[in-house]
Amino acid sequence: MPNLNKVGTALSGGPGENSAIPSLLRLRVILTVFFALDGFVFAGWVVRIPAIKQQTGASASALGLALLGVSAGGVITMMLTGRLCRRFGSHPVTVACAALLALSIALPPQTHSALALGLVLLVFGAAYGGLNVAMNSAAVDLVAALRRPVMSSFHAAFSLGGMVGAGAGGLVAGRLSAASHLLGLTVIGLLVTCAAGRGLLRHPVPVPPTATTRAPVQDAAPLRLGSHTGRLVLVFGTIALCTSYGEGAMADWSALHLKQDLHAHPGIAAAAYSLFALAMTVGRLSGTALLERLGQTRALVGGATVAAAGLLLGALAPTVWLVLAGFAVAGLGLANSFPVAIARAGALAGPGGVATASTLGYGGMLIGPPVIGFVADWLSLPVALTTVALLAAVAALIGYATRNASASEAA
User: b/e for 15-44, b at 16 or more Cβ within 10 A?
Assistant: First the structure.
């Protein structure tokens, strides 16, 4: 396969390593499938929340408490998953969590109270959080072996899977009950997990070409947050928190801002988050080339700075089209910040680093919407949305301050 050998030379830097490249490329495809499946299943659940609310008869506040089950289950499990990855390896844990995610998505339609819904969402959130840590840990190992900054491509697959899942869910919402739809996602999820999981379980954890005498990342010692490495991981986790805060805010408040403050047509208001998500997907698809050209620090700092400007425009612009333009710019700017932060934490501390940074990042998605709600009640929604721009700017400053912190950063 001469073409693949040329690719191998470009990726690994030497003809002696070419034989490993086809195997690494297959692993990259398999992991991409798991990232896409994660986004697809989660989006399928999100579009069915109104139907589940009606089924359980929950009030808005009761539903909000029940939905915290997803976040609580995810945050609790993320730290545990780092230990499981060190003990059993990230590949088996990825397959197990994907199977649990597929099975648990069928549970919410079987509940008939907010309490029961919250309990099953703990299971769903645990599977979702565990899968995110495990597959990101596996991706970090692959990035190190390829010696290319391809982490953004995995997160692009997650975004694409989410867009497909939301679109498919919208199409079938009027034809299938929530129980039938989510049971269908269980079947699809299990089939994909079985098909992709066989290849993932057979594939050994890749070892970086320059570290053939070093133990794999999974054998590393547990992360100690008081150490120098632990403090750096917390720094990168804070960057993930600052950027994911914006993602959560855009999901919950962008449409309301357009409709309430600028009196936009409901269809245009609803398109705000879609435009943001599309821009983020485009940014992640081009992320590898961008990171190779600029390096991780410049890409992170520049992206967060662009995002801060776009978010400020989206929050304070006086016209609908300027707001939409601002949200699109923000999506492009935020696209690669989270993947870079997770990748750098994983390069420093393996699965424990991924778990810590992911937990902080997930916390940003959790606290963003309610914080904006409180500030909006106290002042106004446009002013509240400026906090998203502020945190993006903080992420840029932290990224610049830690530009020489990780020896694993690409030049």
Answer: eebbebbeebbebbebbbbbbbbbbbbbbb
- Distance between CA atoms of residues 162 and 143, nearest Å: 23
Which phi and psi angles does 357 have, rounded to 5°?
-65, -40
- 152: confidence class by pLDDT, cuts 50, 70, 90: confident
User: Are 94 and 205 a contacting pair, CB within 8 Å?
Assistant: no
Instruction: Name the residue with tokens 């929950």.
Output: 58
Whether the pLDDT of residue 19 is over 60: the answer is no
Structure tokens at 348: 């420093």
Give the Cα separation of 189 and 196 in Å (integer): 10
Query: Which residues, at least 6 apart from 252, have a Cβ–Cβ distance to it below 8 Å?
Result: 368, 369, 372
pLDDT score at 215: 41
The amino acid occupying position 90 is S
What's the pLDDT band for 43 if we cut at 50, 70, 90? confident
Instruction: Enumerate domains of the chain plus CATH numbers.
Output: 18-206 (1.20.1250.20), 228-401 (1.20.1250.20)
Say how far apart CA 40 and CA 142 lie, in whole Å: 23
Distance CA(370)–CA(366), nearest Å, equals: 8
Dump pLDDT digits (tens) for 368-385: 767 777 888 888 889 988
Burial readout 186-197 (b: 16 or more C-beta within 10 A, e: otherwise): bebbbebbeebb
Calpha distance 308→291 (Å, rounded): 19
Whether the predicted model's global pTM rises above the 0.70 cut: yes
Determine the distance from the C-alpha atom of residue 150 to the mean position of all C-alpha atoms in its chain, rounded to a whole number: 14
Q: Could you give the CA distance from residue 242 to residue 304 in angstroms, rounded to a whole number?
A: 9
Q: What's the pLDDT band for 7 if we cut at 50, 70, 90?
A: very low
352 has a pLDDT exceeding 80: no
Locate tokens 């840590």: which residue?
133
In angstroms, the CA 284 to CA 178 distance is 31
Q: DSSP labels for 191-242?
A: HHHHHHHHHHHHSPPP--GGGTTSPPGGGSPPP-TTSHHHHHHHHHHHHHHH
